Amino acid sequence: MAQPKSVTYRWGVVALLFFATSINYLDRQVIGLLKPTLEIEFHWTETDYGHIVMAFQAAYALGLLAFGSIIDKLGTKVGYTISIIFWSLSAVLTAAVKTTFGFIAVRAALGLGESGNFPAAIKTVAEWFPKRERALATGIFNSGANIGAVVAPVMVPWILGVYSWQMAFIITGAIGFVWLIFWRIFYETPAKHKKISAEEFEFINSDTAEATAAGVPETKIKWLELFGIRQTWAFVAGKLLTDPIWYFFLFWLPSYFATTFNLDLKKPSLPLVLVYTATTVGSIGGGYLSSWFIKRGMPIFRARKTAMLLFALCVLPIFAARYATNIWQAVALISLAAAAHQAWSANIFTTASDMFPKQAVSSVVGIGSMAGSVGGIFFPLLISYILEVNKEAGHITAGYNIIFSICACAYLAAWLIMHLLTPTMKPVQLRGKDV
Questions:
Q1: What percent of the chain has pLDDT over 70?
Q2: CA-based angle 375:270:332, to the nearest 5?
Q3: Which has more pLDDT, 365 or 84?
Q4: What interhelical angle do 46-74 and 76-93 show, nearest 10?
Q5: What one-character-per-residue DSSP string does 108-168 give?
Q6: 1-57 pLDDT, tens per residue?
Q7: CA distance 202 to 200
Q8: Taking a C-beta distance cutoff of 8 angstroms, is the pair 132, 262 a contact?
Q9: Known PANTHER family for this protein (predicted)?
Q10: Cβ–Cβ contacts within 10 Å for residue 394, how many?
Q11: Vertex 365: Cα angle to 107 and 250 (nearest 5)
Q12: Which of 96-110, 133-147, 172-186, 259-273 has the lowest mean pLDDT?
């Protein structure tokens, strides 16, 4: 007797995206945890480390712009394959680096490869889910960023203690190749997949059916045409102002806890585990909240914007981190802000698939994420400058206080700009020929 075809295969696809995103953030988090060790071995200054982070962000930004278009042309299966091979190989090769310039080069290669993750993942969600489920699906796979960041503070110090910093890069980098086996075996687009039922296929394409019934044609879009659309710039603004804050949480939090509260990064770090565990709750909960608003009858655009405003307000208390007298007060404030960021992220990514047709989603995500990475290029320079100046003056903590104040305001500013550009997030209809 034949087995019945699944009606929930799309959630298995989300699981694949979740693990890929976990690996993506595990690989990029390693260097932040090894920073104290590498600073001693390679005699890094804060400026040296800032340049390494900047190289990653610059390559990540360029890669996002390229990968968005590539994935729209080649498809998610091939695009994701190219991306993870490139970034996993770069992560492993970091173990062979002997100079500071070598770290700059190999981290740039890592950034280029890792840039394919989110354009591919968001397009996959758009292909496999109707709009009413996309925020939740995005929140689930996006929580992989937090799992990777939770695992890293436990895994990397253990590898460092038992083996060496080189093995930390080799072991974490090799995990991507294991994931690739499962991706090649189990993934295909819904139209080509043999394991989903007609019922699930119909549900996945319900938005397309509704659009067709309303007389909205499915057209391809010229890539350059995307830059002339207000909805593109709304997404760009939201990413530009908020992505750099997340990069700060990833690359500088370990150092902040070490310098401010004497946290030993050669041991598993409970404060970091708690911060990134909170972000997992934020990512899934943030995706669920806007989906819940939609189920309660709220229009899609209002549900997204209401949820994002709440999350922006939740970041404001991080301003008070400057008054923290012990590490656990700081952990509580930073955990709330980091969780709010991931909740915001789950929803802002979904706005791209709300406003743009599936054929253009990866390109738009690539453009907006590139803007976020450009912010991530310049923000490390500002962070490095602030920390160096205050370190020379003997006020290390004061530098972080300034940075936390910037973090507190970024999300409200982003929300206001997005609202001004797209008050109702009207779906885009274009007459292009090619993305």
A1: 90
A2: 60
A3: 84
A4: 160
A5: HHHHHHHTTHHHHHHHHHHHHS-HHHHHHHHHHHHHHHHHHHHHHHHHHHHHHHHS-HHHH
A6: 344 456 688 999 999 999 999 999 889 888 888 888 888 888 888 788 878 888 887
A7: 5
A8: no
A9: HEXURONATE TRANSPORTER, SOLUTE CARRIER FAMILY 17
A10: 7
A11: 40
A12: 259-273
**Residue 155 class from Cβ within 10 Å (0-12 exposed, 13-18 middle, 19+ buried)?**
buried
What is the distance between the alpha carbons of residues 258 and 201, in angstroms, rounded to a whole number?
A: 51
In angstroms, how far is CA 133 from the centroid of its own chain?
19
Task: Find the length of the chain.
Answer: 435
Residue 119 within any structural domain of the chain: yes
Cβ atoms 336, 278 nearer than 8 A: yes
Residue 244 or 218, more confident: 244
> Residue 49 is part of a domain; what is its CATH number?
1.20.1250.20
- 212 has a pLDDT exceeding 80: no
In one-letter notation, the amino acid at residue 411 is Y
How many Cα neighbours within 13 Å face the side chain of 275?
A: 27
Q: How far apart are CA 78 and CA 120, in angstroms?
A: 10
Alpha-carbon torsion, ordered 118, 19, 255, 45, to 10 deg:
-60
DSSP output for 334-377: HHHHHHHHHHHHHHHHHHHHHHS-GGGHHHHHHHHHHHHHHHHH
Residue 288: pLDDT band by 50, 70, 90 thresholds? Answer: confident
What whole-number distance in Å separates Cα of residue 300 and Cα of residue 297? 9
Q: What percent of the chain has pLDDT over 90?
A: 31
Instruction: Say if 115 falls within a structural domain.
Output: yes
Q: Tell me the whole-structure pTM to 2 decimals.
A: 0.72
Domain membership flag for residue 57:
yes
- Whether the CB-CB separation of 369 and 244 falls below 8 Å is answered with no
Q: Which residues constitute the domain of residue 378?
A: 9-421
Domain presence at residue 429: no
**Amino acid type, 412:** L
Phi-psi region of 207 (alpha: psi -120 to 50; beta: other; left: phi over 0): alpha
Number of domains present in the structure of the chain? 1
Tokens of 267: 């041991």
Token readout for 7 is 């009606």
Q: Any long-range contacts for 394-402 (C-beta under 8 Å, 24+ apart)?
A: 396/259, 396/260, 397/259, 397/260, 397/322, 400/256, 400/260, 400/321, 400/322, 401/321, 401/322
Is residue 307 a contact partner of residue 290, using CB atoms and an 8 Å limit?
A: yes
Average pLDDT over residues 152-180: 90
